[in-house]
């Protein structure tokens, strides 16, 4: 199963298959182009300037390459003179069973190669001419080899390895299928702990976070378990040894697991979601909010608007380990977005970006282009990199107002939201009370679970920065971006499920009823929020770093 990711335009020169494995060769790229002062570059882009090859550290435009302090460029080496490399992948097998090891060999690559880098699925890169990899779940995994010469010229090749269950193709799921039969490595993924740590009835109480009041779930886990005939005693008695059957999980889990598997979601991801799938309704649950909520909301709302770029089905095949035993390496993997701000001095809790008019976010909202790549987003209204709908609302009274973006997953598969970046154009907050906001998802036993920290930026726009389509709005507007950074909760609570809502609330410290005092004005502002919104889900455990760097999304707030 290939990730739905951006195409990096690799040109294949040969593709050879055999019964033993796969050989893939791809010719190297041409030498980098000359630096262009009018071109936009993002992290990793290379250029030739003044006889040297330079690599961009982050988004930049118009800054000459140099070795000076703070330069967005890194000098790689002298330009010219190198031969064009070719990356060649040979694998010991193209199709293997769960638990088998595959050897990856790059020895037939050609050129004056200095480094070999392998990326398999969402795993961290490894280096070397040859490496081995073992798979613990079924699915299709993309293998990428990048070779780099001494002068910085690169070539890349890709192939796919298919991983089947030990008996061949995955067996049919029935009510009698046990979790050990479905996913033999259930213990390594802490499936028993995820079930037992969050049993229905023990985690159903409400409670708000983020300074925006409190809320409770509309339909508790205990009520869902009773409605869906979940056998809680069977879970307590049988989950640890793997003898828990799908039938004991009630009326919901089996059908969802069949659907997700049929759509290509890896078995380890399905297994990690089972504690919520057994409680996941077929109907769409009404959203709840942690701020003022719909009891104090404008009548005027916007949407739902389907993603106008018509994104393809989106798969995230990594779904990292949930680290229930708090081992350092696993916690670092599970909470990697959350820890990033703590480990990187670029982040702060001071909002210094209200006038950051160099941010690529402004070009994005003006031109409907991606902030990191500069490529068109492909739609004329709300856009996303996964199928979904967007709506917008305004809630509040007196001085406490919240702009709300509500999203619905319209695809047949779930996607986890850790590292997701959302940007939009909204009423100005002037940097006030930005910590007062929330992420909402009905598929949690209580609102606070996961309580993601948020990386957030606001840029208060001068008139010349406002997109022409919204120049008629007689009020100060701001460009906003938020990245979600969860911690201390399983992935099943960080997930957008098919047909279900999740939402963001961001406080606006101004009396919006005074600013937008007619129905037409109110409708105009919520329409603008929904139309300009974009959701960028994380792919390949990349933290969405390219977007974060391009728009300087370095402010962290608690929640």
TrEMBL record:
One matching Pfam family: CBM_5_12
RNA-binding recorded as keyword: no
| Molecular function, one GO term | carbohydrate binding
> Which GO BP terms apply?
carbohydrate metabolic process
Matching entries from InterPro entries are given as: CBM5/12, CBM_sf_5/12, Ig-like_fold, PKD/Chitinase_dom, PKD_dom, PKD_dom_sf, TAT_signal
Gene3D superfamilies on file: Carbohydrate-binding module superfamily 5/12, Immunoglobulins
Spell out the CDD domains in the cross-references.
ChiC_BD, PKD
The protein's matches in SUPFAM superfamilies, at most eight in alphabetical order, are given as:
Carbohydrate binding domain (SSF51055), PKD domain (SSF49299)
Give start and end of each PKD domain. Answer: 85-170
Statement: the UniProt record of this protein carries the keyword Hydrolase:
yes
The GO cellular component terms are: extracellular region
Alphabetical keyword list: Hydrolase
Designated name of the protein: Chitin-binding protein
């Amino acid at each position: 199963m290939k990730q739905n990711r951006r195409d990096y335009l690799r040109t294949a020169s040969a593709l050879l298959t055999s019964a033993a494995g796969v050989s893939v060769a791809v010719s190297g790229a041409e030498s980098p182009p000359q630096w262009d002062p009018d071109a936009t570059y993002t992290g990793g882009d290379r250029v030739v300037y003044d006889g040297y090859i330079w690599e961009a550290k982050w988004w930049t435009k118009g800054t000459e390459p140099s070795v000076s302090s703070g330069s967005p460029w890194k000098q790689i080496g002298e330009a010219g003179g190198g031969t064009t490399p070719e990356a060649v992948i040979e694998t010991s097998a193209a199709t293997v069973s769960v638990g088998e090891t595959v050897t990856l060999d790059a020895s037939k690559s050609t050129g004056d190669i200095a480094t070999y880098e392998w990326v398999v699925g969402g795993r961290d890169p490894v280096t070397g001419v040859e490496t081995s990899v073992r798979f613990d779940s079924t699915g299709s995994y993309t293998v990428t080899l990048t070779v780099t010469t001494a002068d910085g010229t690169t070539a890349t090749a890709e192939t796919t390895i298919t991983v089947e269950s030990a008996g061949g193709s995955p067996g049919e799921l029935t009510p009698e299928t046990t979790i050990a039969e479905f996913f033999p490595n259930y213990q390594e993924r802490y499936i028993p702990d995820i079930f037992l740590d969050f049993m229905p009835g023990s985690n159903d109480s409400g409670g708000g976070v983020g300074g925006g009041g409190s809320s409770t779930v509309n339909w508790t886990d205990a009520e869902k378990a009773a409605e869906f005939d979940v056998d809680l005693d069977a879970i307590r008695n049988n989950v640890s040894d793997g003898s828990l059957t799908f039938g004991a999980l009630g009326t919901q889990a089996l059908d969802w697991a069949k659907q997700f598997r049929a759509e290509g979601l890896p078995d380890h991801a399905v297994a990690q979601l089972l504690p919520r799938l057994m409680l996941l309704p077929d109907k769409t649950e009404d959203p709840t909010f942690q701020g003022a909520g719909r009891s104090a909301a404008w009548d005027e709302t916007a949407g739902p608007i389907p993603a106008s770029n018509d994104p393809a089905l989106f798969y995230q095949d990594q779904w990292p380990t949930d680290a229930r035993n708090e081992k350092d390496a696993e916690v670092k993997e599970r909470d990697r977005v959350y820890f990033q701000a703590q480990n990187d001095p670029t982040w702060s809790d001071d909002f210094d970006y209200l006038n950051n008019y160099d941010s690529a976010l402004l070009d994005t909202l003006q031109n409907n282009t991606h902030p990191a790549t500069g490529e068109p987003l492909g739609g004329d209204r709300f856009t996303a990199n996964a199928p979904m709908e967007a709506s917008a609302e305004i809630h509040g009274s007196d001085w406490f107002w919240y702009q709300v973006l509500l999203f619905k997953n319209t695809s047949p598969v779930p996607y986890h939201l850790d590292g997701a970046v959302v940007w939009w154009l909204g009423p100005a907050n002037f940097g006030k009370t930005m910590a007062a906001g929330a992420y909402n998802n009905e598929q949690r036993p209580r609102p606070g679970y996961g309580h993601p920290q948020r990386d957030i930026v606001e840029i208060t726009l001068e008139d010349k920065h406002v997109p022409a389509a919204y120049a008629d709005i007689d009020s100060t507007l701001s460009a906003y971006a938020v990245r979600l950074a969860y911690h201390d909760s399983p992935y099943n609570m960080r997930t957008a499920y098919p047909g279900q809502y999740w939402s963001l609330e961001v406080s606006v410290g101004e009396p919006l009823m005074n600013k937008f005092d007619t129905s037409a004005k109110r409708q105009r502002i919520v329409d603008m929020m929904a139309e300009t919104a974009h959701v960028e889900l994380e792919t390949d455990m990349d933290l969405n770093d390219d977007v974060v760097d391009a728009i300087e999304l370095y402010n962290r707030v608690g929640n």
